Amino acid sequence: METSISTKKEQEIKIAVAGTGYVGLVAGVCFAEVGHKVTCVDIDDSKVELMKCGISPIYEKGLEELMQKNYKSGKINYTTDFRTAYREADAIFIGVGTPEQPDGSANLSYIATVARQIAESVEKDCLVVVKSTVPVGTNDKVEQFIKDFLVNDVKVEVASNPEFLAQGSAVDDTLYAERIIIGTESKWAETFLKKIYAPFNLPIVSVNRRSAEMIKYASNDFLALKISYMNDIANLCELVGADIEDVAKGMSFDERIGSKFLNAGIGYGGSCFPKDTKALDYMAKQQGYDLKTVKAAIEVNNQQKAKLFYKASKRLITFSGLKVAVLGLTFKPGTDDLREAPSIDNVPLLLDQGAHVYAYDPVGTKNFAEKYPEGKNGNGNISYVNHIESALDQANVCFIFTEWQEIKNLPAEIYKKLMRTPLVYDGRNIYSLAEMKQAEVEYYSIGRKSVKVKGTKYAEYQNS
Ligand code: UGA
User: Fold this and answer.
1) What is the distance, to the nearest Å, from the Cα of residue 265 to the centroid of all Cα atoms in its chain?
2) 226: CA distance to ligand 1 center in Å?
3) CB 230 within 8 A of CB 262
4) How far apart are CA 89 and CA 117, in angstroms?
5) Partners of 369 in the beta sheet?
């Protein structure tokens, strides 16, 4: 495709980014950081005003510093005026959400809205780049959709450029990504997208659009599968008296397996793995194909989430009237995101049973309190505390749902010292069995023997 862009080699590239969530905002800020001129578009006025003041709508390490620096130097701006932003852009990145629908499919309505706005706004040739996670074939449809609604006689081509950032390390994951995947259908789009990414100096894998779309799902679902596999093995370890931590360590020396994402726990959460596994399963079903492995990963994960609650239910007659310390609410450390977090599955179960939950999380309590306001909730009560000690003080039982560093730093003895009954259910395998035994804490974790305390004199390892 011949375009005006190819002739202005050394000129600044003007980029518009649609959506200022994790994907859009981080991409926009990082494009500005490497020297492009960026306009981030969002529909929410108040959010735009906050971003102009250097305040990020999401909690992400290092993001606000880069927002402030690049706003000051004029490299990034924020607006609700999509028309101007898209009209002036050489490339428009779409980073809006594709949330899960009740049937598991991805909701593409936000993508469609942006595509239509682009079609009605652009006045010069431009490249539209889909960063959002979308079902295979969506890029083709987006291109056709834009062409159908184009107002001016310009050329618009769509490219796929999936995102691989993880929450909590999003800025570094973007600036120092292991790979950039670009999916294009023309030399022009490929060359232009490579030019946009040239300042990052990272490995670029160039494929066609459908393969790029599939790389995103295949990567996320592979990681989800890896976690579910370890959780499945962990459950078997408990039954046969093996230790999942030792098993994972032994496996990790094999370079073909690798050492990452082997941590068993109470299931994967977040905005990506749960959604992307269901979306791929749905996509396969649509094609009449039974994607057995991914289905199994979903099933194992669903069962894993409330595993500790049911284990505790066997140990305790009731949660009614008990003080339950909940340490960690977010789906993982380093984020305030609660989507599909184990706490979201477990806290309602505890409240239903009449527990008085004392929840601690370094950043997640505000968001959690929006769902479960402090005070009476159903049959139970919930209180939010700023110090772990306040949650543990005189507690009857403790659940650990997120491996925040401040929780990991807690010495085992503190449970024995502060709790009324030192009874801990750890969904993240933070402690060694030996230290809990030494501290005389009754301790249940994932894929390991439990530590039972007889009286207060001694603790024993036992199969649970
Ligand atoms: C994930 C991927 O890691 C990113 O590469 C991808 O770009 C992103 O989804 C996305 O599609 O946007 P994220 O959801 O932020 O990133 O979080 P992860 O660090 O991958 O963790 C996901 C879940 O898996 C968490 O609940 C975590 O606790 C769990 N997990 C992770 C385990 O249970 N065990 C592990 O060994 C690793």
Assistant:
1) 16
2) 11
3) yes
4) 13
5) none
282, 366: one domain? no
Query: From atom 19 of ligand 1, which residue's Cα is the shortest distance away?
Result: 166
Tell me, yes or no, whether 378 lies in a domain. Answer: yes
pLDDT in tens, 15-45: 999 999 999 999 999 999 999 999 999 999 9
Query: What domain range is 194 assigned to?
Result: 14-207
The whole-angstrom separation of Cα 192 and Cα 196 is 6
Q: Both tokens of residue 239?
A: 């039954």
Does residue 1 belong to any structural domain of this protein?
no
CATH of the domain at 234: 1.10.1040.10
Place of tokens 């649609």: 18
Is 4 part of any domain? no
Whole-number Å distance between alpha carbons of 24 and 37? 15
The predicted model gives 367-376 an average pLDDT of 95
Flag whether pLDDT at 459 surpasses 50.
no
**Last residue of one domain, picked from the residues 285, 303, 321:** 303
Atom of ligand 1 nearest to the CA of 168: 15
- Residue range 397-407: mean pLDDT, rounded: 98
Domain total in the chain: 3
pLDDT digits (tens, 9 = 90+) for 128-146: 999 999 999 999 999 999 9
Contact 138, 96 (CB under 8 A): no
pTM for this prediction? 0.93
CATH of the domain at 455: 3.40.50.720
The predicted structure's pLDDT at residue 168: 87
Is position 6 within any domain? no
Which residues line ligand 1 at a C-beta cut-off of 6 Å? 133, 163-167, 220, 223, 227, 261-263, 265, 268-270, 272-273, 331-332
Token pair recorded at residue 410 = 């807690």
To 10 degrees, what angle do helices 342-352 and 307-315 make? 30
Residues 339 and 291 in one domain: no
Contact partners, residue 157, CB within 8 Å, separation at least 6: 1, 127, 128, 143, 184, 185, 186, 188, 189
